[in-house]
């Protein structure tokens, strides 16, 4: 599942945003928070309309992980500001950071899906 115009989606306003540390080093809840935001942004982008349903499912997977990890609103909000600083302003998005995070989140989503599938 590819979403090509993640930078354009970043211009959208969201109440929930994510983390400041690299995703590969983040605890599960922190990484799930970051990925939730990226999938939410991608799903909102018109360029990703064909994948909107899949992106929403990935967001739900991240939401479940955040719930399981007991991520508080305060934690989530704290990570949001740092994430926004890292990706830049809406008119000057750091596309390289977004692309790296997208790839990391896709890998993380696969691992979380496998984890939950094994628990059934």
List the helices and strands and how they pair.
Blueprint: H1 6-9, H2 28-44, H3 52-68, H4 73-87, H5 95-119
Name a few traits of the molecule.
single chain; 120 residues; mainly alpha; 5 helices; disordered N terminus
Descriptive report:
Keywords: Signal. The protein has 120 residues and is mainly α. The protein has one domain. 65% of the residues lie in helices and 0% in strands. It is built from five helices and no strands. Helix 2 packs across helix 5. The longest helix has 25 residues. The relative contact order is 0.21.
Coarse shape: globular
β-sheet strand percentage = under 5%
Poorly predicted regions: 1-25
Number of strands: 0
The tally of helices reads 5
Structural class by sheet pairing and helices: mainly alpha
* Main sheet attributes: strand count, strand direction, barrel closure: none
CA-atom Rg in angstroms: 13 Å
How would you state the average pLDDT, rounded? 79
Q: What is the helical fraction, as a range of percent? A: 55-70%
Gap from first CA to last CA: 24 Å
Order of helices and strands: HHHHH
Number of domains: 1
What oligomeric arrangement do these chains adopt? single chain
